[in-house]
UniProtKB/TrEMBL annotation:
Location in or out of the cell: Cell membrane
SUPFAM superfamilies named among the record's database cross-references: MetI-like (SSF161098)
Keyword Transmembrane helix part of the UniProt annotation: yes
Domain of life where this protein originates: Bacteria
Annotated membrane topology: Multi-pass membrane protein
Identification of the protein by name: Carbohydrate ABC transporter permease
Domain ABC transmembrane type-1: 74-276
Keyword Acetylation belongs to the record: no
Family designation: Belongs to the binding-protein-dependent transport system permease family.
Pfam family, one: BPD_transp_1
Length: 291
């Protein structure tokens, strides 16, 4: 049995130390934001709040989430995230399958066209004019359609497809299976790790995106959560926040409101991530490097 040398133990200690430092670098800022969201206004304003709350209160969180517009915005964001992620995964998986077949004529040129779109795009104004021409302003499709396929994500799934044994498809074709049958009954079930990983990428993108809604959505009834939280942050720094009653603003500060908005926006993703985490590392590694 191999015994670890002093050098091996030192390397293990160094690796654990790096992991601990990275973990603290990730958790400490989050703990600080959470503490500001639930600490007393005077402690937040005076800068006394670190990673431990001072003067525990939930008025700031209530101020952010008590509005009916908040619940409506969450519903809009959930709709965009669920529908957008499903369609994006479907289209990305369908696109990656034929591109993984190197024997197809013209496949190199087609791949070049996809790669070209990763480096160049029309820009904000042409995209806005396109959405206006398609009558998609103040329409949720203006948020989902441009993001239904990411070339990077497609390349990851394509690499995963290429890592699967070709004998699986050959045996299925010998049994009379067609391409769609092979894809949906063989390839996709075997690609659950990478698909779950890419689904997480898409879901995080759709959930966190506020730039495109800010460009294309003017109707308050169609604003997703990120736009609502942005409005809350802007109101916290403006005189409009002073329209609230004294009781409402007693333990509410602009800094606390900003912290509460961050917490409110990340909680749904934190709840979803543990269910996909087991596929995350495997999906990225296998999908990125052909075995």
């Amino acid at each position: 049995m191999h015994k670890k040398t002093i050098g091996d133990r030192s390397l293990d200690f160094f690796i654990y130390l790096v992991l601990i430092i990275c973990g603290l670098a990730t958790l400490l800022p989050l703990a600080n934001i959470l503490s500001k969201a639930i600490s007393d206004e005077s402690a937040v304003v005076s800068g006394k709040v670190g990673i431990i709350p001072i003067g525990f209160q939930l008025d700031t969180m209530k101020y952010v989430v008590s509005s009916s517009q908040f619940l409506h915005s969450i519903g809009i964001s959930l709709l965009i995230t669920v529908v957008g992620t499903f369609l994006a995964i479907l289209i990305t998986a369908l696109t990656a399958y034929p591109l993984s077949k190197r024997h197809l004529p013209g496949i190199s040129f087609i791949m070049l066209l996809f790669i070209f779109t990763m480096m160049f795009n029309g820009g904000i104004i042409p995209n806005y004019l396109l959405m206006k021409q398609l009558h998609l302003i103040n329409n949720l499709w203006s948020i989902m359609l441009p993001a239904l396929i990411s070339v990077f994500n497609m390349l990851v799934i394509k690499s995963y497809y290429e890592s699967l044994p070709e004998a699986l498809e050959e045996s299925a074709k010998m049994d009379g299976a067609r391409n769609f049958t092979i894809l949906f009954r063989i390839i996709i079930p075997l690609s659950v790790p990478v698909i779950a990983t890419i689904a997480l990428f898409y879901a995080v993108y759709f959930w966190n995106d506020y730039f495109h809604p800010m460009l294309y959505i003017n109707d308050a009834g169609l604003k997703p959560l990120q736009l609502y939280l942005r409005d809350i942050v802007m109101d916290a720094d403006s005189s409009s926040a002073m329209n609230k009653s004294v009781d409402d603003m007693m333990n509410v500060s602009p800094e606390g409101i900003r912290a509460a908005t961050v917490i409110a926006s990340i909680i749904p993703m934190l709840l979803v991530y543990p269910y996909l985490q087991k596929h995350f590392v495997k999906g990225v590694l296998i999908g990125s490097v052909k075995g």
